[in-house]
Amino acid sequence: MTVLVASDLDRTLIYSAAALGLTMPDPQAPRLLCVEVHESKPLSYMTETAAGLLAELTADPRVVFVPTTTRTRKQYQRIRFPGRPARYAICANGGQLLVDGVADKDWRREVAARLARECAPLEEVHGHLLATADPVWLRKARVAEDLFTYLVVERALVPDEWLKGLVEWAGARGWSVSLQGRKIYAVPQPLTKSAAMREVARRTGATATLAAGDSLLDADLLLAADAGWRPGHGELADAGWTAPTVTALAATGVLAGEEMVREFGQAVARLSA
Q1: How do 96-99 and 88-91 pair as beta strands?
Q2: 200 near 87, Cβ under 8 Å?
Q3: What's the pLDDT score for residue 78?
Q4: Which of 205, 149, 212 is nearest to 177 (CA)?
Q5: Which of 39, 147, 154, 199 has the smallest number of Cβ neighbours within 10 A?
Q6: Which conformational region is residue 50 in: left (phi greater than 0), alpha (psi within -120 to 50 degrees), or beta?
Q7: For the domain 120-188, what is the CATH code?
Q8: Residue 170's Cα: distance from chain center in Å?
Q9: Which CATH fold topology does 3-112+192-272 show?
Q10: 96-122 per-position pLDDT tens digit
Q11: Element housing 199 (H / E)
Q12: Strands (E) located in 29-87
């Protein structure tokens, strides 16, 4: 059998220094492995135990490990996971499908056609964000892969009413809004990780799918998988979100990432029994 394992990355499998969530005294803190370097500086980590478990998981010939992220291709390619390199990766929230590190042009054309039919154009949404965001709390505005847009903000200063208004405005135009750390994402609703996961499952002949994620943008991925997990932190945890096939873990921070990989391995063993 073939088991596809699709995992979100940031705040699910890997953690920046800001997202580590380690409040334990140093003698009790888990040892960490840096898996991402940017501009000669260490950026993202997982525990050494999680790294070992991931290496074991990807070495299993029954497993197709698929990193699944809202990151752009360039941002994703900074990451160096332990173990066998992933042949497939899902970037830009499902807008880019990488095969051996190269973007699949057929998939990108299919995504572009779907977005043109089903939601307001990117230019309209990005323009609205720029027009309504307050310079007091706005730090950066970015367009990712010509697919979606996001703001980098001082989170504590962003008014709740502004965010609620943005959710309503975007929803009426076929877009979703997600707050993750210091970033506010506006993403077309037809742009989903689940659609890309199904495409990889089709290509690999996967007979079972497992998934993990922490944000509202991961909900469709978790629902589409045969089994899913979410950590005890993040948007989904804050909303108390779950589903019959989704396990809500109690673990938070980088230890949740370790628990996630352990759950994947145990699920593969059960499916193969």
Answers
A1: antiparallel
A2: no
A3: 96
A4: 149
A5: 39
A6: alpha
A7: 3.90.1070
A8: 20
A9: Rossmann fold (3.40.50)
A10: 999 999 999 999 999 999 999 999 999
A11: helix 193-204
A12: 32-38, 41-47, 63-67
What are the structure tokens assigned to 100, written together? 């051996």
Domain ranges for the chain: 3-112+192-272, 120-188
pLDDT score recorded for residue 26: 58
Say if 3-112+192-272 and 120-188 have the same CATH topology.
no
- Please give the backbone phi and psi of residue 227, each rounded to the nearest 5 degrees, phi first: -150, 145
* Cβ-count burial 135-173 (b if 16+ within 10 Å, e if not): eebbeeeeebbebbbbbebeeeebeeeeeeebbebbeee
Alpha-carbon gap, residue 268 to 2, rounded angstroms: 9
Measuring CA to CA, which residue among 69, 78, 71 is closest to residue 43?
A: 78
- The predicted structure's pLDDT at residue 196: 98
Q: Tokens 């396990």 correspond to what residue?
A: 247
Q: What is the distance between the alpha carbons of residues 64 and 31, in angstroms, rounded to a whole number? A: 27
Buried b (16+ CB within 10 A) or exposed e, 227-264: bbbbbbbbbbbeeebeeeebeebeebbbbbbbbbbbbb
Q: The dihedral of CA 39, 44, 45, 51: what is its sign?
A: negative
Given a contact cutoff of 8 angstroms between Cβ atoms, the answer to whether 30 and 49 are in contact is yes
Residue 255 · residue 49 · CB < 8 Å: no
Residue type for position 68: T
Q: What is the structure's pLDDT at 33? A: 95
Can you give the pLDDT at residue 23? 46
Q: What is the largest CA-CA distance in the chain?
A: 57
Task: Report the phi/psi class of residue 240: left, alpha or beta, with left for phi > 0 and alpha for psi in -120 to 50.
Answer: left
